[in-house]
Amino acid sequence: MAAPLLDVADLSVRFETDDGPVHAVDKLSFTLAHGEVLGIVGESGCGKSVTCMSLVRLLPETAVISGSVHFDGVDLLALSPRRLRQVRGRQISFVFQEPMTSLNPVIRVGRQIGEVLQKHLNLSGRDARDRTIELLQLVRIPAPEQRLDEYPHQLSGGMRQRVMIAMALACDPKVLIADEPTTALDVTIQASILDLMRDIRERLGTAIVLITHNLGVVADIADRVLVMYAGRKAEEAPVADLYAEPQHPYTIGLLNAIPRPYESEDARRRLREIPGRVPSLRELPTMCAFADRCPRADELSRTNVPELRMVAPNHLVACFHPGPE
Amino acid sequence: MTTVDAPVALPNPRARRRRLLRKRFLRRPMAVAGLIVVVGFVVVAIFAPLLAPYDPGATDFNALLAHPSPEHWLGTDELGRDELSRLIWGARASIQAGVFATVLAMVVAVPIGLVAGYYRGWIDTVIARLTDVLLAFPFLILAVGLAAILGPSLMNATIALGIAAMPGLIRVARGEALALREEDFVPAAVANGANDMTIIFRHILPNMTSTLLVQATLTIPAAIIGEAVLSFLGLGVQPPTPSWGTMLQDAQSYLAQAPRLAVYPGLAIVIAALAFNVLGDGLRDIFDPRTTR
Known about the structure:
The complex is a heterodimer.
Chain A: E1 6-17, E2 20-32, E3 37-41, H1 48-55, E4 63-71, E5 74-75, H2 81-87, E6 92-95, H3 109-121, H4 125-138, H5 144-147, H6 157-169, E7 175-179, H7 187-204, E8 207-212, H8 215-221, E9 224-229, E10 232-238, H9 239-244, H10 249-256, H11 299-303, E11 309-312, E12 315-317
Parallel strand pairs in A: 3-8, 3-9, 6-7, 7-8
Antiparallel strand pairs in A: 1-2, 1-4, 4-5, 9-10, 10-12, 11-12
Chain B: H1 13-26, H2 29-46, H3 48-51, H4 83-119, H5 121-135, H6 139-150, H7 154-180, H8 185-191, H9 196-204, H10 209-232, H11 244-252, H12 260-287
């Protein structure tokens, strides 16, 4: 296997708050290959977004990041702010959850995209405009020549998210990080945005990191899935394996919480929620973080932190009692 | 998806917003009146040499303190100079002081406020506390003090007024920047590789233009009154150059014989300042999205 495009090793993120440190991400390692789609799933507050923001140091000053993030052989965490700005938006770009507010309301969308092009690629105003029209076509915005001169408030949520994606793709980045890109949109638009992202991966070969709490979205587009819980990796597997043979009780819990109205009678059962909630991350764990919510928890889970182990090729799980239900 | 791209004639968004603002503006008679007076005032100032019937410095010793007449519509002063002509020329000093002082204050204060509000931390603390100290002095006291240091002339008066207007503007710009830096488009711009200067001047500044425009229309009248005060005190325009402030000063000695000499420049100051204020209020209303009408 070729060297991965992105190699994250032992990434930890700690926030120094007035009430003491919060360990948002704890010794997380993962890789991303060229052109791969990696889904990161988990409940709110389990460190998905923080992980991705920390890759190019988008977090506030209070965040202390350790570990290493190698991108194309360069350690991003050791890069100077200046060099880092050349990576942001050029090599690694972001699509955020809120298309309604992530665009600057007083700047026309064409110029917002054009600015990124002019900054990173030194295009002239005219070339940037032409390229912007191409990009808007790529993200399937009708009548791009006219949309160019509109302000964000004149576009619908779905359109705005397309503009955000166009802006993220402007410089043909190697990695696109999409943080809950469909959460704020209604269902029909969600489907077309996912469709668009799949198309982009195929046409441009962009590697995508998709952060979501929706396993359905992941099943749709990801190659590999990383399940996070309380700032740590709970399970990691190719997408088919994860759905066929989920190992970690947390993953199983997440899968059981998906409605399946179209399946056979016996598959249609009551939706099951996971009791309890994500633990506070104030102290480093001394036991399995999921133990308090887990039906399989025993003495071992309550006294030791489970290490990741390989249960099948490329299938990692951090649990003392792994296995499908 | 791609089948709907028949090029529909979308109305130019900029024109649409402008039309909406114009409609809102026209529904405010006071603001419209303010705008008319302001425009008239600016026109008079620019075309003073053409509009003034007499040379403002020309004395006519056959008509000292003359009453209004067909020759001298507003009468003459103690040296027989035509009041109307002096009033018209006086508008020049006023607008010069009002506009240039405001421009000067904006150019200096807005970047300072932006930097303070965007970076926060010690730089903000230093700037904010200094501003507080300066704000403890009333605007005119500060202007008088500065003008006294700089020496009397219209230019120095304008600079003094500009500096005196800075603390208030710094505070406004800082407040806006503090709020705008928390908007989602800021991290989005950072994620696209924007540096601090790009974020401050390309992303945050354009979002506060309407606030700044309103502030400008409210700073101009303060500077106009300030110019009159400084000239009245002898710290601004120097005689024989006409200015509403110096005219008031001259009129003081003849208050008993010819009170009208004080009334004309006084009225001119009030009307000009009021017009800018009313216009500023109107602009604030139409830019405020919470305005329902």
